[in-house]
Amino acid sequence: MPVTNATYQIHTKGYWSPVIHISGPEGDLGVLKVSRNRFGIVIGASYTPLKGERMEIKRDPGILRSQFSLWSEGREWLGASLRWSFIGREIDLSTGTRPMRLLPLPGFGSGWALHAPKTGQMAQVHLGREPRVEVYR
Q1: What confidence category does residue 76 fall into, taking pLDDT thresholds of 50, 70 and 90?
Q2: Which residues have CB under 8 Å from 87's CB, separation 6+?
Q3: Under 8 Å CB-to-CB from 122, ≥6 apart: which residues?
Q4: Percentage of residues in the chain with pLDDT exceeding 90?
Q5: Which among 31, 44, 45, 83 could disulfide-bond with 66, CB atoms 3.0 to 4.6 Å apart, if both were Cys?
Q6: pLDDT confidence of 63, banded at 50, 70, 90?
Q7: Which of 11, 16, 5 has the alpha carbon at shortest distance from 29?
Q8: 8 A C-beta contact, residue 89 and residue 105
Q9: Nearest to 90 by CA among 71, 109, 118, 115
Q10: Hey, how many other C-beta atoms are within 10 angstroms of the C-beta on 55?
Q11: DSSP string, the chain
């Protein structure tokens, strides 16, 4: 198991359109707001950090599978994600420089693990009673 470099806490409020507060050892880092359409499908999100530029996550239209793009406030493309099937839980992430994969945690735990192609696991997102993000690199 890799050594944890940093751990961030997640505090969620709301169910239909959750507001997620992210905090680290030094205090609050930012707020993630998720938006859904009238059918309950996630159509996007916005991340507003306390310091820095606001980012928008938007669902790409016309695709049945889940595909999202990440944009900066100045309309600069930062990355994209694609889930290849309705059943599969593997998500491919592309940032332009290196591809990564988001996979479910092993076992029956709820959460995700972020993997780089050559260096292995980079982070874990744990959901449930004590939600947190553990960063390894």
Answers
A1: confident
A2: none
A3: 100, 114, 115, 116, 135, 136, 137
A4: 27
A5: 83
A6: low
A7: 11
A8: no
A9: 115
A10: 19
A11: -PPP-EEEEEEEE-SSS-EEEEEETTEEEEEEEEEE-TTS-EEEEEEEESSS--EEEEEPTT-SS-EEEEEETTS-EEEEEEE--SS---EEEE-SS-EEEEEEPSTT--EEEEEETTTEEEEEEE-SSS-EEEE--
Q: Which of 60, 57, 51 is nearest to 71 (CA)?
A: 57
Burial (CB count within 10 angstroms: exposed 0-12, middle 13-18, buried 19+), residue 96: exposed
- Under 8 Å between Cβ of 65 and 83: yes
Question: Is residue 42 within 8 Å of 34, Cβ to Cβ?
Answer: yes
Return the structure tokens found at 38: 């009238």
Judge whether 91 and 100 are in contact, CB under 8 Å.
no
The residue whose two tokens read 């593997």 is 90
Residue with structure tokens 């198991």? 1
Q: What are phi and psi of 118, to 5 degrees?
A: -100, -35
